[in-house]
Each structure stands twice: as structure tokens, then as C-alpha cells.
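Let's inspect one such protein example.
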Amino acid sequence: MQIHKELDARGLNCPLPILKAKKSLNEMLSGELLRVVATDPGSVRDFQAFARQTGNDLVDQQTVGDEFIHVLRRR
């Protein structure tokens, strides 16, 4: 999986990871992948809802230690 852009949202609480991801996705081309690393446990459901609402594809979600990794494909 080729990640085109990475966003460090560690230490940020809702809604900041989503807002920063939205801004990053707007700067990307259709089909490109954005990887977001967050520490807010609520980000798991937040990114699921964000993907449904915006039409971007939530390709992957992982929990690694106390970090939550989300990979979105730009629509």
C-alpha cells in the first residue's frame, strides 16, 4: 500500500484529527492515500462516520499500542 501523505494527529482530540484530515484530503488527488496517526480512542468511530459522510474510502484501521492508524483513499 503506497501512502501518499501522512498526518500526525497524536495528542489531538475530536474534532481536530478529522478537521486536519479533511484539509489534507482536499489537497490530494483522487485515489491517493492518507495515513492518519491519532491517540484519541474516539477517532476510530469518528473516521468511520467521516468516511461514510464524505464518500472517501476508509481503507484500513489499526490499533498499535496507544495509537490509532487510519488510512483513507481520496474520492
